[in-house]
Each structure stands twice: as structure tokens, then as C-alpha cells.
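Model the whole thing, not chain by chain.
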Amino acid sequence: MSVTQTPLLEAKGVTKYFGAITALRNVNFHVNAGEALGVVGDNGAGKSTLMKILSGLYQPSEGQLIFEGQPVHFSSPRVARNSGIEMVYQDFALAGNLPIYENIYLGREPGTKVGGLTVIDRAREREMAQAHLDKLKIHVKSVDQPVEELSGGQRQAVAIARATAFDAKVVIMDEPTAALAIKEVGKVLDLIKTLKEHGVAVIIISHRMDDIFYACDRVMALFQGTNFADAPLVETNRNEVIGWIMGTKGHTAQLAHDKVH
Amino acid sequence: MISNNPALSRFLESYGIILVVLVMMAILYATQPATFLSATNLSNILKQNAYPAMLALGMFVVIITAGIDLSVGSVLGLSIICLAVADKAGVPWPIVLLIGPLVGTACGLVNGLGYTLLKLPHPFIMTLGTLNIARGLTSLISQAPISGLQPEVRFAGQKVFDFGIFLPPAGVPFSFFLVIICAVGLWFFLNRTNMGRHIFAIGGNPQAARVSGIDVDRVLVYVYAICGFFAGLAALLLAGRTDSGFPLAGIGNELDAIAAVIIGGASFFGGRGTVLGVLAGVLIMGLLRNGLNLNNISPFWQQILIGLIIIIAVYIDVLRRRAATRK
């Protein structure tokens, strides 16, 4: 990775107020194509707020977003999605009453435009969903199953399938493994590596050091709404990263709370 | 047994309501064999339930989004008075025909825009407001019934086709065909178009809809406009059937519409229900009224029975939800 490479997505001096509360203060952020970035921080550090700004759900109070070298303004998730920025939500944000295939293409249904409406080509929608799930090696009984009948891991798989159904350039994952059974975690992390190999930038918010150290190239830490630390994974270790989350630097193996003397 | 057989339970969920209608018809036939299945009685049932069916179809769209529209009865009242006043003022009939649906749609837009722009906590509030506003406007326009409408204006609500086989007044009412056309159109809209699916998605999980790039507020405005449109159409049918516009028209009808939708299996929590179920719900309420009338049972007992049916229908919905969300 060269130093002069233009980041795929960049945030400069982002500040976000919610009334009297400052959730983010002058935060800088960048991620490169094909990079997996882990974002860590304690509850309330501003991780989710930053991700919601990157995905268009919130607008920054101050600061600027730069995508592919151009200043951009994501006024809604739709605008961000059209640029190729997708988000996988911690609660999956799926409509439980709708079948898998409809969830994957919700808001982007294939079909024929008639006036302001799209008459959905449901056979094609099903086929596309099946083909896409096959590509990601996600197995479901049937794409017609309502999402509310699925397990947590299956729902996460559907949510990732939705995020990657069109050519996503950046996929943001909020605690992607938090709701998964242990045996399903590996699959999701491998899926992240596959996305990375296709040049997709993957941003992972996680509390699990195993996830970060298995799937990420770089880790950045937020503390109380500000940038705290940022380092390639090879230059740091679990204890140091855990220290960043708690707002301490130089947290080495010697200081680890679980160290057996 | 039912829970062990997904195919059977799915079949019952989709078509069980039709069985209920058939059982009711069998019971009514058993109690009143001479009258109930007579062509006159059956065509009466169809004619009487056409305008409640229109209200229920509109209400259904709102309830899919987990919303409610309390104003449809008043909107019907305002629409019927507007079209009757216009008719009496000598407005040509093709325009009078449009007035009902136009007034209804306008009221629906007010509901949708008010609810979404003012960010009111629940559509209950906005539509409770317009329930009062529309009724007040109706009485300001006319406090007395206006009767004697042009035949073309009455046509939709009054015309009965005897097809050369029925003895008048028996026959198939035009309003019945209109309900079927609207129901098929609505079914197509809800199940085959993107906006229809977005309406279901909003009912299932508004956050999912929002993050999928759906403009939820915009869809909701359309939803309330559609509901208002159907209330206006209901006004046209009621005006035709009664040959009048009267300021008290539609009072309490919003509750019948809600009841029919819920009895028909739509979920009050949003996201589920079928057009077929709604029509069946209307028919169940209509048959109940008809059967109790034929058997000379007091209308007070009708109220009690309908109340019980509503509670049972929602309880079934609660049980179904509990079963569905179990991991």
C-alpha cells in the first residue's frame, strides 16, 4: 500500500452534535480499496455515529466526506448506496415479514418501469437472489422463506447478501458477529476476506479482538468522540488495542489484566 | 396438528377466512332457508356492503403500515356532501363523479402530509383531528340531506344488472363489480409493484425500509392518499344507493372498516394481510348483520357479537405473531 494512494473514502474534521451532546469532535477517517479496517472504541466512543455519517443516515454538523477523491454529500442512505457504500446493521435491518429474496432487493427491485412504479419481475428477482446467495456460499432452504423464520446467523448472511447484491465499493459492518453462533462466525469472517479480495473496502466495528485480528489490515480507535489511535495490525497487538478502547496508550502485554505472573 | 403441518397452516392462513364465510352462509341458510339464499337477499348483501368494502380496502393499505385512519367516515361525509352540492348546482355529471374521489384523495393527502411533516407520534392523532375537521366542514356546507341526484351520478351505487335471469330488484349490482375491480387493482399494486412491497416492508420494519433507500414518509403520504381515495369512492357508491348526500353519512364507519380489516386477518402490528381477507372480513360483518336481521335479533346483539369477533380476531393475530417470532 503506497503512501500516496488516494483513499477510497475519507472523512475530514467531522463533528456531530445531537442537541447539546457532541458525539464526534473533529474526527478524521480514511479507508482504501481492498482494505479491511477495524474500528474500535468503548460504548459511546462515536463508532456508530461515524458509520451512520459515512452511510448517509446522519449528516455531519461540520466536516467533509470525500469519496474517490471528490467531495460528496450523502443526504440519505439512498445517495450513499448509489455511490456504492453499503451498511450491514447490527440488528440486520431486515423486514421479517418479507421473504429472503425481497429483502435482498428491497428498494432496488428488478422489473419494468410503468410511470413512477416498477412492476416487479419476481421470477427474475428470485433467480438473482438465488444466484447471489450461491456466489457467497450462503445456504438457505428457500429464498421464499420469510426472514422472521431464520436464525441469527442466517439473518446476518441475508443482510450481507443485501449489502453486496450490487457492486458495493465500501461495506460497513456494525458488530457483524455479535449475534452469531460460534460456528457461523468463521463463515462471516471468511466472507469479509472474499469481499476484500474483490477490491471492496470493508469497515468492521467490533468488540471482538478475534474478529479484528483475523479479518482486518488496520485498526483505528475512537475515544470519547475523537481520534485516539490508528495503526496497521502488524504493528500492534491485542493488549494495546484493548488499551486504546479504554483510553490508555502503551498498554503492553506486561500490563495486561489477564497476565499470569 | 396444525402447527405440525406447515402446508396446512399456510393454507389456513391464506384461505381459512373463506371457510369462515362459507360456514356462516351455511348457518344462515339453515336458519332462514327461504329468505337467505334468495336472489333478492343476496343482491342486497352485495349492494349494502359495497361502500363498506371500499372503506375497508383503503383502511387495509394504512393498516399494513401499522397505521390507522380514523377519518375515513368523516371524509366519506365530506365527499358525499361536496358531490351532492355540486350535483344540485348543475355541475355536469362527469365532473360530479370525480368530486367524491378527489375530495377523498385531498383529505388523505392532508392526513399523510400532516402526519409525516409534523412528525406526530402516531397517525391516530392526525386522523382523529381530521375526523373532527372533516365532519365540521361537512355540517358547515350543509346541515340538511340533499336528495335527487342526476341518474348518471346514481348509476355506480344504484345500478343492478339482472342479466335477463334475475327478477328486479334482484341482480348483480354495478357497485359489486366496482369493488372487485378495485380489489384486483389494489392486489396488483400491493403485491406486484415496488411501492406495494415497500408498504409491506414499512409495516414489517420501518428501519429496514429506510436503510434500503425507501423514502418512508413519501410512501406514507401515498398510503393515506389511497385510503382517502377509497373513502371518496365509497361516498359515490353511498350517494348513488341512497340517492342523496347527507351530513351524517359515514359516522362510525371508520370503526367498521378497521374491524373488517382485522377480522380479515390483517395484523394490527402491520406488515401482513391480504386483499381477499379484507373482502372476507367485510362479508363476515355484512352476513352477520344480515343473518341477525333476518332472524329478528336485536341490533344491540349485533353490536355485542361484532365486538366479540373483533377481540377474537386480534387474539388470533397475537397467537400467530407469538408462534412466528419463536426461534
